[in-house]
Amino acid sequence: MAAFSSNIESKVEAVKEELRTDPNLARAKHYARVIPEKFPSAAKQYLLDKLPIAQWLPRYSPSWLVSDFMGGLTIGVMLIPQGLSYAKIATIPIEHGLYSSWLPAAIAVFLGTSKDLSTGPTSLMGLLTSEIVADLKSEYSPVDIAAATAFFVGIYGLVIGLLGLGFLLDYISIPILTGFISATALTIGFGQVGSLVGLDNTPSTVFAIIGDVLRRLPKWDGPTSGIGFGTIAILFLLEKIGKKWGKRHFMIQYVASSRAIIVLVIFTLISYLVNKDRDELLWAISKVDTNGIAQPKAHDSTLLTKVAARAIAPFVAASLEHQAVARAFGRKNHYTVDQTQEFNYLGVTNLVNSFFGAMPVGGAMSRTAVNSECNVRSPLNGVVTAGFIILTIYVFSPALYWLPKSTLAAIIIMAVIHLFGPFILIYRYYRISIADYIAFNVAFFVTIFVGSEYGIASAAGWAVVWTLLRSAFTKAQISTNSGSGSRMNTSRPFTRAGAAETENVGITIPEDTVVVAFQDSVFYPNAQRTKTQILESIQLVYPSVQNPNYRADTARSWSVAGERRLERLRKERNITMKDMPLSVVVWDFTMVPFIDVTGVTALAELKDDTRRQLGNFVEIRMVNMAPGVVKRFERAKWQLADVDGPQNEGADIIYPSLERAVWDDREPLKEGLKGVVTEKI
Fold first, then answer.
1. In the chain, what is the straight-line distance between the N-terminal and C-terminal CA atoms, in Å?
2. What is the mean predicted confidence (pLDDT) over 92-96?
3. What are 2's strand-pairing partners?
């Protein structure tokens, strides 16, 4: 009996020990203790992150009002012809392009994290919406279908944003996006040729349109063709004038940027004067009919079930375009864009907009570029944009009744012609990575011949398959000890960028040096996150340096989100900044067997951002680069030089060992640091 009792006790003790050492239970206990303590402050920070205006408005300077007003007015003027044109692509009444344009600008003031980004109707959203409309228009009105699509684009955006799932879209690489947008640009452009020359019932596919239009050449309508090609000529001329002389005077640049509204006014006036007293119109007109802002309307539940799956493609396209444009101009103008919050903004905008009869919307490159050129200082410019659109809906829209359809077609053609990827870029994909080149072609040709939804899905499928194959067949590099080498003792450990703890690497690391050891291939699923993580980790430790090569950095910035995040992380992690500036960053490629176009682009951005924010004198040194990785850099025209070979000015140096990369030739760095001014952010 005693033995039995002892056996039971031992088993009970064993169970207790298992429970005591169980890592999952320990983790649960930790969270149960920490969450109640940190919830109030975390909830406050979460709400502040979701309402960016609360962070930048207190810093707003009255001197910014003029720039914001001019930028907002310019975008409002641009949105009139673009909204009408892109609604035409979506095959909905074109006045709904105006209804789709005012709310995104207004909501951006409160929820947007980009001062430059202009959200509204785009040609890409118009094409994807038109495909859904074409399939369901026999059962529902085009406006209801487009609004239901916008509703689900908003729902998906909020789900991705609130759950922090934006990384899923990283699996759509840059070449795939380029191929998809290039194909849609061709489809949209050729789809307007019939309206441009006065032909009805043209086919829907690119090559069928070309054959049909050429076969019916004798039936082209003369007056309609004159209006259409005249519009193209003026748009082309104003664009060239802006490129050649726009930088000399603001007014020239403003006129060139507003060329679409200029031709709209000119040919609408001509159309009115020619057709007002005619019983039979000389050419087709748009007959815009607005009665103020559309009344909110609930969606049909049956229609929503039919649109739910079809809305995934517009959401993916809108998100990729929106995020790419926001990041590009954030980098250009030196401020931080919160990718997760941009999903929330995109979601709220489309969700609310859908109840007003709007089509799906997203960020537009052309309008954002103009907004940036206007030197807007904050998202407050959206108030002016929204106000001008509303004024147009109530006051100016009756004049748009006489707008020629061929003028709208010409505006669309000239807008999308720039979306086609330049041939030099496509050739660069071929030179850098044949897999990326194939992905581009899959996205392009499937979109052209089958459809946009299948185009982006098939290209993403190819990318996933290629990634799995490449991961499965990676060859390990096996090394043996020669018997003559020895390992140095570490006198000072260093923190790897992104690591939670210090790691012993067997060499001494100077105070002004950071070693970044990449742990995997640098390619499209991880490139952007890797770049952001490395830069942030370095900024947590080293002070920023006033850089004369980037004058924009010396101006007062409207955005403080990036600075406050760094301050918060330093407090949370008990990090004390160093008193000396950064001098050397060593990129250790030992664990990097592969890099693609997106990876090379991200590292180029990392190099530029490091020097812009931490000093133009910072040296980037590379070590243990595989021959295949070196070739990818060289194909991308990245200047590299071997430390023991000839070296061109501006080239980044490749070292054979980590120790040599860390310590080699440090005297010139000391000279470069003389007179440097640092500031702790």
1. 72
2. 91
3. none
